[in-house]
Amino acid sequence: MSEYKSVQKGSLKLKGVSLPSKKKKKKNKEMKRLEEQVLTSENEEGTKKAYVDKRTPAQMAFDKIQEKRQMERILKKASKTHKRRVEDFNRHLDTLTEHYDIPKVSWTK
Q: Where does the record place Low complexity bias?
């Protein structure tokens, strides 16, 4: 085991590559600057102009109709109770053909 006493333990050290130095902590100047920016932005929000709508008249009409149709769909769905909806669904299923039933096959007739 004495042959291994001269072996260097630890990470390899490469030539031309310096060790990464520890970064210094930023002082409170950064925090103070951020707080000032927040305060000034709050003051500017009150003085900003209102939002200018840049949509074309066709786009505005389309959005209005979409909203109207969505409200109609919501009112239509809200008009039926769950019980009524289940009854309608069962009635619909009764009218469908039954594809998955096993057909009766008789060899005698």
A: 9-20
- Contacts of residue 60, defined as CB under 8 A and 6 or more positions apart, other chains included, come to 53
Name the E strands within 4-80.
none
Residues 6+ apart with CB under 8 A from 55: 63
Distance, in Å, from the CA atom of 78 to the CA atom of 85, rounded to the nearest integer, reads 11
Q: For residue 51, give Cα distances in angstroms to 48, 54, 55, 86.
A: 9, 9, 12, 46
Whether residue 60 contacts residue 53, with contact meaning beta carbons closer than 8 Å, is answered with: yes
pLDDT at 109: 58
How is residue 77 written in tokens?
Answer: 């769905």
Those residues whose C-beta lies under 8 Å from the C-beta of residue 14, and which sit 6 or more positions away, are: none
- Can you read off the two tokens belonging to residue 60? 């505005």
CA nearest to 63, candidates 72, 74, 55: 55
CA distance 38 to 101: 70
